[in-house]
Each structure stands twice: as structure tokens, then as C-alpha cells.
Write a structure and sequence with these properties.
6 helices; about 35% helix; alpha+beta
């Protein structure tokens, strides 16, 4: 069972367990709200978990209650993020939102995106975790071109600033080879030579 809210008094209970049906109910709730909501929330009272999404600022808050409560914050730069985060929460709750920079203090979100991303990635010392994060960044908007990975395909430098800074640190952590941008590449792209560790993970997705 889930509880939807808009932070302004509108609430709706959803009794379905199937993630897709829950998402459809949430989309209907969102569509019936008057105007553009400032905040949307999804609560799982049984699991004592919740997701709050401050739509205008692109801020997500994932919350876990119980004996070891946690509250973490994230700023999302790409558009149309609300639906994807909601679906991940319906499918796997708090843990379904794993991956990417989450911060224990909301004040961290006031830092410039580049500083946030670099500081967060610098704290990743575990190689498998670093590989997972490189793959997460690549999967958002990346392609494989011959023997290269292209991150942030067609992006400008004004886009994905936090993830681009994080990727630069992760490239150093994993000893990956960053390549010069070829003629015709978008200014925000990052080209990296293929690596067996990354390849093995990509093949496992197939």
C-alpha cells in the first residue's frame, strides 16, 4: 500500500502491489492535481520508507524509518525525472534509488554541481562500486562507438555538470583512458577507451 501526497493537503491511498499499477495510479493522481505541484511524495507505511520530490528545484529526498532511520538528498539535472524515480521506488523502495550522488545533508546541494560531483566520487574507493557508477552515468545518455565509450552523447557543457565532474574522478580511480574529443563531437561529451571491466558488466545486461 502506498500513500501519495502533494504537500498541500491532497492525498490518496493506493492499495495495489504491482509496481506498474502503482505507477499508473500515481500518474493519475499527479494528473488530477490543479496546477503544477511544488512537491510530490510517495510513502510506503509498511516498509517505513518514502520518496519526496521537490519538482521545481529538481530535488529528491529518500527516507527510511525504523531502527536505523536515514534521510538522503539528491539534485537531479535532467528533465522528466519524477516518473523514473517514482517507478524505481515502486519497484524496490528505498534501495531501488541506490546509485548516484546522495547526500546526508541538504546543505550539500547548495554547492556548485561540479564540486558536489567531484567530492562525492572521491569518496568511492571500492572498484566494483566505481565501475557501477561509471556504468550508471554511461547508461543515462551514452553510446559505444567502435572501441570507445561516449558519455553525455550530444550534451553541452551546461548539462550533466555533477555527473561529468564525478566521471572525471572515477576515470582516474579506475585508471581508464580518456581520449581527446574528435572533430564534430558535442562539447559536453566525454570519450573513454573501452575497458574489460566495463565490457563485462555491459555484456551481463544483455
Amino acid at each position: 500500500m502506498f500513500l501519495f501526497g502533494d504537500g498541500a493537503g491532497a492525498e490518496r491511498r493506493c492499495s495495489v502491489a504491482d509496481p506498474q499499477q502503482a505507477y499508473d495510479a500515481f500518474a493519475q493522481f499527479r494528473g488530477e492535481l490543479r496546477g503544477d505541484p511544488v512537491m510530490l511524495s510517495i510513502e510506503d507505511p509498511v516498509a517505513e520508507e518514502a520518496l519526496a520530490m521537490i519538482v521545481g528545484s529538481g530535488t529528491a529526498v529518500r527516507i527510511r524509518g525504523g531502527q536505523r532511520p536515514r534521510r538522503e538528498y539528491r539534485r537531479i539535472e535532467h528533465a522528466n525525472w519524477v516518473g523514473s524515480y517514482a517507478m524505481r521506488f515502486f519497484a524496490d523502495g528505498y534501495d531501488g534509488l541506490a546509485g548516484g550522488p546522495w547526500y546526508p545533508d541538504a546543505a550539500d546541494l547548495d554547492l556548485p554541481p561540479e564540486e558536489r560531483g567531484a567530492r562525492w566520487a572521491a569518496g568511492i574507493a571500492d572498484e566494483p562500486e566505481a565501475v557501477d557508477e561509471v556504468l550508471r552515468i554511461w547508461a543515462d545518455n551514452g553510446i559505444v562507438d567502435a572501441d570507445h565509450y561516449v558519455f553525455f552523447h550530444t550534451d553541452t557543457l551546461a548539462e550533466s555538470r555533477e555527473d561529468r565532474a564525478a566521471l572525471s574522478v572515477l576515470i582516474e580511480t579506475l585508471g581508464l583512458q580518456r581520449l581527446p574529443l574528435p572533430d564534430g563531437a558535442a562539447e559536453g561529451e566525454v570519450w573513454v577507451r573501452t575497458d574489460p571491466r566495463i565490457e563485462a558488466e555491459i555484456e551481463s545486461w544483455a
